[in-house]
Amino acid sequence: MFKLSEIKELIKLLDQTSSVHELEIESEGMKLAIRKPDRPEADGTAVQATPYNAYPFTPAPQPQSVQQVSYPVISEVPPAQQPQAAAEGKLHKIVSPMVGTFYSAASPEMPSFVNVGDRVGEKTTVCIIEAMKLMNELEAEIKGEIVSVLAENGQLVEYGQPLFLVKPE
């Protein structure tokens, strides 16, 4: 099974290179595929590759314009937590390392991994992020006390979205 820290490192390495655009690894019956998203050109058009088997006299497809889609902005701190936002500068944010579904417990019948007021250590599992049918345990990576849980069970979360606020020890 792939560790979350290993996946994070592979993503960083892939982001740092311009020559590699995708990576597939298979180990112990598990397969991990990481692909860079297609990046639009500065003029707003997407680059479209000519198929490998295209005839030399076939005109290359013309780039199509990329549509800008805007999504509603979701506040990182729920309204009930607003007074706490002033003290947030002293708090550590545990953020989602990937896009996926947030689960506060290992199964619906089990209690949450952590609740507000719980003390955590560096290796304490705080939640699970499900991505592409893989369950990825997220560790606190800091000693402290859980001050706020910013995501709800079953909620879709984005890369970098704050999930917990921790008061460091």
Task: Output the keywords.
169 residues, mainly beta, four-stranded antiparallel beta sheet, 10 strands
Catalogue the unreliable spans. Answer: 40-58, 73-86
Mean pLDDT metric: 76
For the secondary structure, the number of strands is: 10
**Structure classification:** mainly beta
Question: Order of strands across the widest beta sheet?
Answer: 3-10-8-5
Assembly category:
single chain
Terminal CA distance: 31 Å
Strand content: 25-35%
Q: Report the major sheet.
A: 4 strands, antiparallel
Q: State the order of secondary-structure elements, H for helix, E for strand.
A: HEEHEEEEEEEE
What overall form do the CA principal axes indicate?
A: globular
Gyration radius over CA = 20 Å
What is the helical fraction, as a range of percent?
10-25%
Treating each run of at least 4 consecutive H or I residues as one helix, how many helices? 2
Explain what you see.
Helix content is 10%, strand content 30%. The chain is mainly beta and 169 residues long.
Summary of the model, kept short:
The chain has 169 residues and is mostly beta strands. The chain has helices spanning 4-16, 82-85; strands spanning 22-27, 30-35, 92-95, 100-103, 119-120, 125-131, 134-139, 144-149, 156-157, 162-168. Helix content is 10%, strand content 30%.
